[in-house]
Amino acid sequence: MSMAETAEMEDGETLSLHQRILSDIREKILSGAWAPGHRIPFEHELTAQYDCSRMTVNKALSQLAKAGLIERRRRSGSFVRQPQSQAAVLELHDIRIEVEALGLPYRYERLERMKRRGNAEDRSLLGLSAGPVLWLEGLHFAGERPFALEQRLINLSAVGEASEEEFLDIAPGPWLIGRVPWSEAEHRIRAMAADETIADTLDIDPGAPCLVVERRTWSAEHPVTHVRFIYPAESHTLVARFTPSQG
Amino acid sequence: MSMAETAEMEDGETLSLHQRILSDIREKILSGAWAPGHRIPFEHELTAQYDCSRMTVNKALSQLAKAGLIERRRRSGSFVRQPQSQAAVLELHDIRIEVEALGLPYRYERLERMKRRGNAEDRSLLGLSAGPVLWLEGLHFAGERPFALEQRLINLSAVGEASEEEFLDIAPGPWLIGRVPWSEAEHRIRAMAADETIADTLDIDPGAPCLVVERRTWSAEHPVTHVRFIYPAESHTLVARFTPSQG
DNA sequence: CGTTTCAATATGTATATACATAATCGTCAT
DNA sequence: ATGACGATTATGTATATACATATTGAAACG
After folding, report:
1. B33: helix, coil or strand?
2. Does domain A87-239 have CATH number 3.40.1410.10?
3. Fold of A6-80
């Protein structure tokens, strides 16, 4: 076969061979076709399947291993690892992406929507801002199970357009990003016992531990939004990986 | 030169050649010796410098490019990119400082210390490393109240000196920093209900929610330590503030 | 003077090959 | 049974080589 060969995808995109192998396998894993624990084909089998050299297969597999999707064991083979919801703590995380990374269908459902003049608590949450606010409560689903409860406060003085949006099945997070350039954010992460209401909403036992992530966002010194995500403890682990700067 | 050669570091650790090149360059960049915009040596120069093949150099550089530390341009060379870090939110936090910031007297007390050959669980926690480990359990106090329980595993192959340290009232965290330059860290944050033992140690009710922060640290690709901090929910909130810096 | 062409160059991707290393399995002796 | 040991196997890392591709800079041309 000719060297440095490239492949045409259905959509006409050109991918290098090792990238094609990589995305083929990743797709198999993310779609659930290859469940956690499943042994993926040996290098020599993939070599035959893709009609390429072992080096090329090895490069793809090493990359998947480095990304944490698979685990490689000498003499035994390569195995699909347990999925790890990798919410980037430090990024504006999109719950849809987290859920879909688990291979589950995502859905958002609004529970409550209220426009009001900011009260004392609202001001304290948003950080020193008066004026009208939009209060939203919604539930993120992974499949049929509640994945996270979201309680959000939007500063309408900063994002007036939000008052015309119903947020019935669009989550406010993705809606806000792109519309409002944020310049600063603060996260607070803590553990909490679910009270009656929350337990009922999330379909867990009262008193069960929950992970609470609160985020305040500013745009040019103006508070934009305060959001509180409440995750049942079992459903969620935040993972953040750093290199002093990246590497 | 012989194939599959490995190099001895000062400390006696073995690194693959491409990892050595990788960390050499990363160090140059992170230390500031090579400022953003600086052109790093061509592949053929590094090939000569390390007396290895271009493939090996290429692998290291591709990895750095993928990680975003450098940018590669055909015909022009490879250049150090503008740093685009996401503020290290969950920086190696020092519990002493947290406690003293609350205006309370700080104290550390060792509960358990055990040297042992790493078992399967140890290896999985540390991430694929065999060899002897040091297991430590200790309690951080704020005033008279337990503030956090620490369970730590130190890879003695990486930090041999630790085996001579008793850690009776010095917490291993501060001891390790300064002795071992970390190059990578991973945090996992979750909520958990306290079991009997933990509840007893922390002087809280069984079943009460706790915040669990686990951190794995690597130095030059070698696992150094795994630590688990367990905080009673009331005592602790992680706060992370950052601004986007986009490069 | 501007544009087109072309060679040089650094990186990108693939090949085949070689040997190292870790884990597992079967064999054989105890 | 059980433990020691060597063969086997899959991955890990390195080599040398080959050709592709993007970009630059200089030469050739209108």
Report:
1. coil
2. yes
3. Arc Repressor Mutant, subunit A (1.10.10)
